[in-house]
Amino acid sequence: MPEFPPRPRQRNQQTWWRRFAMSAAVGAAAAFCLALVRVLMIERGSDVTSRPVVAGRATQQPEHPHTAFEPTDWNLAPVAWVYIGTLVLLVISCLVLIVAYPEALPDASRALHINPPGPRLQTNPQSDLQRFRAAEDKQLNGYYWIDKQKGLVHIPIEQAMKKLAQRGIDGFPKAQP
User: Fold this and answer.
1) Domain boundary among 47, 80, 100
2) Does the pLDDT of residue 77 top 80, yes or no?
3) Domain final position from 72, 100, 128
4) 21 in the same domain as 93
5) Using CB atoms within 10 A of its CB, is residue 82 exposed (0-12), middle (13-18) or buried (19+)?
């Protein structure tokens, strides 16, 4: 693994007390959001008598007088406030972390420092493919000796196909011209 040189100390490098102050700010924001949730959901929603009475409920004798029930649906305003508070807390937390640790974002290098294990067969596949196709084209479209003693010569494939079409193959019917 490559070793990186030690980082030079910056002039405005943050000290421990600044990081502690940032953490306290995040904690205060979290406490504020929790207090907001408590006020909106618990203290406002605990008054059962402020809810509308179900029709005919006042004339009936309750079976369990100390048991409460929910006669209506949830109020969506506290849920929306909790959602907004959570989003605000997340945004503030991200900003506080960016301010507290400014050197954390650019210190991670995304470049490949370690070569994958061998064998690395193709280092430049485009040029390898071009060389391969050039060698195939030379072999298919050129003249060269196959066996000089027997007098066998390789001819280009286009010329060989024309000769075969003119002469035909022994044992096969010939095509009409």
Assistant:
1) 100
2) yes
3) 100
4) yes
5) middle
- Clarify whether residues 91 and 163 are in a common domain: no
Which residue's entry shows tokens 């008054």?
Answer: 47
Query: Using CA atoms in the order 60, 61, 67, 69, what is the torsion angle rounded to 10 degrees?
Result: 0
Domain count, the chain: 2
143, pLDDT greater than 60: yes
| Contact partners, residue 141, CB within 8 Å, separation at least 6 | 156, 157, 158
| Single pTM value for the model | 0.29
- Closest listed residue to residue 54, CA positions, set 78, 39, 70, 76: 70
Kindly give, in sequence order, each residue whose CB lies less than 8 Å from that of residue 138, ignoring residues fewer than 6 positions away: none
20 and 96 housed in the same domain: yes
Which residues form the domain of 54? 16-100
Q: Could you report the per-residue pLDDT of 106-129, keeping only the tens digit for each?
A: 666 667 677 777 777 788 889 999
Assess contact for 85 and 33: CB atoms under 8 A: yes
Locate tokens 């991670």: which residue? Answer: 108
| Under 8 Å between Cβ of 80 and 17 | no
Domain-located, residue 117: no
